[in-house]
Amino acid sequence: MRLYVGLTDVDWYRFLASREVLDEVNFWQPSGRFQFRALSPGEPFLFKLHYPYNAIVGGGFFAHWSPLPLEIAWEVFREKNGAATFEEMKTRLLEYRTGPPDRDIGCILLEQPFFLAEKDWISAPRDWKAPTQRGKGYDATTGEGRRLWEQVVPWLGAGLAGPSPFEPLSVAETRSKRPVLIYPRLGQGTFRVLVTDIYARRCVVTGERTLPVLQAAHIKAVAAGGPHDPRNGLLLRSDLHTLFDRGYVTVTPDLQLKVGDRIREKFENGRDYYALNHRQISAPLNAACAPLRDYLDWHASQVFRG
Fold first, then answer.
1. Which residue among 105, 130, 165 closes a domain?
2. How far is CA 28 from CA 47, 73, 228, in A?
3. Do 68 and 126 have their domain in common?
4. DSSP β-ladder status, 2-8 and 44-49
5. Average per-residue pLDDT in the chain?
6. Is 178 inside any structural domain?
7. Long-range own/partner contacts, residues 238-243 (CB < 8 A, 24 or more apart)
8. Does residue 161 sit in the same domain as residue 194?
9. In 3D, which of 130, 117, 134, 24 has the Cα closest to residue 79?
C-alpha cells in the first residue's frame, strides 16, 4: 500500500479542522493540467503544512481526481474546499497561480478526512526537500512511509461514519486471490464528480456536454437508502433529472429510457421527450460502474408513474 503527503497551507487546515465532522474534502490544486496519479482509490493522503509549521496535520482517503472549473468546484463542495465563500476561494487560488481564474483547477477528492489538534501533529518526513517540494509518495510498509502510517493509524477513526474507512463498491480478486478495494465510501460531492467523469461528461440520454446543466442522479434515492455509489448513478441533463426524480421517465433493465404516458396526460405536451423513448443510454467508461439492476428495479416500481 502507498500513501501520499501533500503540501497545504495553514488557513486551509484551520478552516476545515474547525468544521463539524466532514465526509469529504476537496484538496484542490491551482492547475488542472496535471493529473494526480500517485494513489489508487482507498489509499491514504496526508496533509503537510508549509514551513515554518512543517508537520503532518491530518489526512483522508483518495477517491478520485478531476479537473473542474472553479465555479463548479465551489458549487459541488462549497466549504469543503477549505474556504468560507467563493470569493475567498478565488482569492486563495490567485495567490498560487498567475493568469485568469476561469481555467480548471485540479481536484483531489478525499473521503473521511481527519484533522489533528496541534498537540498531536506528526513530524514531517525526514527526507522532505524543502521548500519547493509539493508532495511525495511513500511505500507504507517500509522506511518513512511505515513511520508515518504507524503514527497516523490511531487517528483514522476520527470522524468516520462507521468502523471501517471503506465501503467497497465491489471486491475484485487478483491472481493471488487477494481482495482489492475498488473505491472508498463516497460523499455526495465526490459521487457527483465521479458520475460526471465516468460518463465522459455527457448526458447518458442526449449526449449533452454543457457541464453546468449536467447532474448526477441517484437511481435509488438517498432518502430511501440509496448509496453514493456510481452504480446507483446516471448523468442526466437537468430537465431529464427532474423528470426522472418525479417518475415521468425511468431506465429499463436493458438500459433504455422509458417515457411514461403521464407527461402527455398531465401536461398535454412532451413531444421532445417522447422522441427519446426507448433510446439506449450511454455506457460508463468503467464497465464496473454500470447501473445495478436492483436500483433500476426500485426506481421502476417505486417512482415511475407509467
1. 165
2. 12, 9, 21
3. yes
4. parallel
5. 88
6. no
7. 238/213, 238/214, 240/203, 240/205, 240/206, 241/215, 241/217, 243/273
8. no
9. 24
Looking at the structure, tell me whether residues 222 and 104 fall in a common domain: no
CATH code assigned at 124: 2.30.130.30
Residue that the C-alpha cell 511525495 belongs to:
136
27 and 61, same domain (yes or no) = yes
How do residues 108-138 score in pLDDT, each as one tens digit? Answer: 999 989 999 999 999 999 888 776 568 999 9
**Sign of torsion, CA 122 126 130 134?**
negative
Torsion sign over Cα 184, 185, 190, 193: positive
CB 62 within 8 A of CB 45: yes
d(CA 87, CA 105): 15
Q: Please answer whether residues 257 and 205 qualify as being in contact, where contact means their C-beta atoms are separated by less than 8 angstroms.
A: yes
Domain range holding 26? 2-165
Q: 229-257 pLDDT, tens per residue? A: 999 999 999 999 999 999 999 999 999 99
What is d(CA 193, CA 201) in angstroms, rounded to the nearest whole number?
A: 9
Please tell me the distance from the alpha carbon of residue 255 to that of residue 296, in angstroms, as a whole number: 9
Number of structural domains in the chain:
2
Do 194 and 159 share a domain, yes or no? no
User: Looking at the structure, do residues 143 and 220 belong to the same domain, yes or no?
Assistant: no
pLDDT tens figures, 135-155: 999 998 899 999 998 888 887
Asked if residue 182 is part of any domain, the answer here is: no
Whether 287 and 160 share a structural domain = no
